[in-house]
Design goal:
With about 70 residues, the protein is mainly alpha-helical. The protein contains 3 helices and no strands.
């Protein structure tokens, strides 16, 4: 168990000094934030969400198109 602790601490030390590791960690954080925002926009009901706005907009287009000859 102590061996794995030392390996983990050495890996964390290398990650701190490695600038490429920091950049990739930033991309992971940004990607997680983007996923969270997209999920928040598409989940839920009502017209305050993106899916509700799209449904309302397409409903209006469909009702307008049905009145055309």
């Amino acid at each position: 168990m102590l061996k794995y602790y030392f390996k983990a601490t050495e890996a964390l030390k290398r990650l701190r000094t490695d600038k490429d590791g920091v950049v990739s960690l930033e991309y992971v954080i940004v990607g997680a934030c983007v996923c969270a925002v997209v999920l928040l926009l598409f989940t839920g009901t009502g017209t305050n969400t993106l899916s509700g706005a799209l449904n309302t907009g397409f409903g209006k287009i469909a009702s307008t198109m049905s009145g055309l000859p």
